[in-house]
Write a structure and sequence with these properties.
Elements (H helix, E strand, L loop, with lengths): L1 H24 L2 H17 L11 H21 L8 H7 L8 H11 L3 H12 L4 H8 L3 H19 L9
Length: 168
Amino acid sequence: MMKKKIEKFYVDNRSRLVNIVYNRVGGAAQAEDVVQDAFERALRYNRSFEPDKQLLGAWFNTILNNALRDFQRSERLMGMSVEYVEEMDEAAPMLEWEGNMLDIVQDEIKARSVFVRQALFLYFFKQYKPREIAQILDISSNYISVCVDQFKKEMADKYGGGLCVTDT
């Protein structure tokens, strides 16, 4: 019964929703994907809808916003994965580290957990600010700052003055 209501809602509102999402994702194909993903989620989680507590449109709008947020996050992370070693190597000329210091920093970053590794890569190699990294990784900028400061301190403690990890 609920699935039929969702299907009818899809038929009645798909074009309007695609147009709304289009302005937020910048392309018709992407907007279609987001709306389609949202409807797929609505069908999958149809039991969470409580008709006596909310309207179908409001319930679906929450699902659509979540699908849109997930899409935007995945777009920001495009190219960000555990396998970013080649990208680190391409970014190396931007850094002002000399000799094996670059290799040491790369090895130290690779030894971190995925989230910290991504944050440090974006900070040191792509020169993003903590606020920007927080938006990309969907975590707090304070956490990013703590990770960066802790990494710098660990490098100073481990390598002394021979390895200076500074902001570029």
